[in-house]
Write a structure and sequence with these properties.
about 375 residues, mainly beta, Porin, 14-stranded antiparallel β-barrel, 14 strands, globular
Amino acid sequence: MKLPGIIKVELFLFIFIIFVASPSRIFAQVTDDNRDQFEAKQEQQREELDRAHDIQATPKTADEILEMLKKRAEERMIERRRAEFFKTKISTGLTSGYESNPSNVQDTAEKGDAWFEENFSASWIPKFTNYLRGDFGYSLVIKEYSEQEGLNTENHSLNFSLKYLPLKSGKLTLEPGGRQEWNIYPFDSSSSFEQSKGFLKFSYLLNQLWSYGGKYEYAYKIYDKKAAFTDSGANFNFQRADIRNTVESWIKRQFGKYSIKLKEKSYRNNSNSQLQHYDDYDAHDGEISISAAFLKNSQLYLILSSDYEVKYYKKRAADTDVARDDRALQYRLNSYYTLNKNWSLSYSFSLKNNNSNKATGEFSDITNSMGLTLNF
């Protein structure tokens, strides 16, 4: 599904005025050396896109959290409440931006590029009981770079989850779910992959000021055409596959219309490719974010965050006789402006500096983007 052409053209022209167009650039692909960095960036952008779609329904202030808890408690008082089986949600949007180093190469070889992204999602959100809700849907994200076509992606995913509120107070939420994902590189088919994810999330509201939560996720990724390597570098007669286990936890403190959130995420990636165990690594990421709601009905919502990640490769060679490790510092600003019940605008800025004991792993990247989202 695409938005009407006139909306697409007007948005692109508006953003084109903001972001200076770049001259012709080279054709780029996702190399083995920076693939994990590029795909991590993709996943982060998908999380921000999901947040943009759900921003109107998310409580942003202490008063809104209290109101949500009161509503949940009132629903428990009703012994019989008609199940809402046919609730649906459709979101579609356009985002355009400019990235200083999309392929994450060394700064001396940095090539900036403008990009344009279309997204669509459709969800069935049934309410089975006052304690149990579902969320089943499909999403499509198409991202196209102006010059570096090898980085273009088309992502299809089927998503499902159940939200269970076991306590009468409604303070505890348990959410098991999963995602089946197909990530396609139209101009670089060797990087295309299919990925299956299963997760369990939980969150607990101590009161209107304090909350905490966590998540465990298991992911299995298999590449369409990329073969796994033997110890000597020859191809196995089967495709490369990765398994990733991720654990994260967070705690949040609300101050009226402001909040501070601390989050830690650790994950381990193991691959069936044996050459130098090139894609086996552990990573740990710590993040602090400050959010604030402004204007009537929290019409403007800002999130300022910073995170620091360390990544230890098992055997991937560095420039010295040790295994490679990377250390990345990132700053992000995300803003969301609700125009009305259906329309919202978003603006994002990110700055990432990646330091490594491998010269080709050193890079910096700056991204500016602006998006328009329609929910109905």
